[in-house]
Amino acid sequence: MALLLCLVCLTAALAHGCLHCHSNFSKKFSFYRHHVNFKSWWVGDIPVSGALLTDWSDDTMKELHLAIPAEITREKLDQVATAVYQMMDQLYQGKMYFPGYFPNELRNIFREQVHLIQNAIIESRIDCQHRCGIFQYETISCNNCTDSHVACFGYNCESSAQWKSAVQGLLNYVWGSPYTWDTCWMSPLQPHPCGGFMNKPRSSAFSWPGTHRATPAFLVSPALRCLEPPHLANLTLEDAAECLKQH
Known about the structure:
Elements: H1 2-13, H2 25-34, H3 45-54, H4 56-64, E1 71-72, H5 74-93, H6 101-129, E2 132-141, E3 147-155, H7 160-175, E4 190-191, E5 197-198, E6 205-208, E7 211-214, H8 229-232, H9 237-245
Antiparallel strand pairs: 1-2, 2-3, 4-5, 6-7
Helix pairs in contact: 3-6, 4-6, 5-6
């Protein structure tokens, strides 16, 4: 009965995290937990190390501290898992360790794992935003291991034609129906489905160090200040959607 309760507790502890979504996690960490008794000369290291392994997933979520959803691509999850398993397997190759060494090494691997997961999630979001326009990529939710996807608005457009296509896609994404670009080029003080009142198109070109990007008049209309060039470098899909919904 006690063993059954212990297994239930372990299952509950592994209900959250990122690494536990990997296909080999259960097998690997089952081995690590079952062999922890043979890794230290000091009996006090055993319960400490066992607790670290049991709480690994929950503690991972607590330490991520991300301002964006904890969603990771399968490719990057495989990379993180491979790195963590290699570090853990190398640690378990030793026969017995002096007091305190084994749990300290587990903590070091845990912190490195958190760092790897943070980088993987952030790098995917940055790569997405460095595209031009709406882009979506498939991910796995670290909260429950379900398939998910991330959508972002990339600002790396280099011509008016690309900006036109990007904003067209953004409008379609936000309102869930197709809008033609021409509906956004209205005469002064005329309301239209793109939101607010648009002025006549005007030329606008701006430069950043080492770059030159042409921005269509739609993005520099007085009605859409939040989509002007100074704000585009840090523009997120959420910000753009909120901007458009307010006009």
